[in-house]
Fold this sequence. Notes:
It contains eleven helices and no strands. It has helices at residues 6-27, 34-41, 55-77, 85-102, 104-111, 115-119, 124-135, 139-147, 156-165, 168-171, 179-197. Helix 1 packs across helix 2, helix 3 (55-77) packs antiparallel against helix 4 and helix 4 (85-102) runs antiparallel to helix 11 (179-197). It has two domains: 1-52, Homeodomain-like (Arc Repressor Mutant, subunit A, Orthogonal Bundle), CATH 1.10.10.60; 55-197, Tetracycline Repressor, domain 2. 68% of the residues lie in helices and 0% in strands. It is mainly alpha-helical and 202 residues long.
Amino acid sequence: MRGFDDDERERIRRQLRETGRELFGRYGLDKTTIADLTGPAGIANGTFYRFYESKEQLYYEILREEGERLAEEIVADSFEARDDPEDAIVAFLTGICEAMETEPLVRRLIADSDLSRLMAQFSDEELREEQAQSLGYVVPYVERWQAEGRLREGDPEVLAAAMGVVKFVAYHKDQFHDEAFYRAVRDALIEAVAAGLTRTDG
Length: 202
């Protein structure tokens, strides 16, 4: 079995990610085969496992890359762009929900219920580390606003996680038969959470 130099390995990894991003978003995890992934990269099916242990691992790596990109964009357009905490939280949560509503990879993940399969490959410790990394985008802002007296008291990680729960309304978007009603419910929930977190009068 021939080896690959560093440049070729990077090319293959990049091609597998690009192909996976497109196919997982279009067809989902189950309907995307190893052959679908390896064909554009110009490698044999068995060679795939020299780069990833499974389709799930590739899917997770792609999701993580997409998640980091989206998080940075949303934080820049919300927490970094707005001085008022309530306005910033509304913008942040709206951005998260809109990403979950429109990003093909995330929508397919929700529609096919593949999330539990992906999470099953990780230990409890790895899941906790993943959660801490996710909360890390929000916690510094919570801590700063608390220090300034502009956000309610409480464990910063708990408050950041409470914000994150709002995204689950987007998981159930398809259960609303009226788009306008869904958006009204989503926006009312976001506004209520933002207002509740920024109340400092007890």
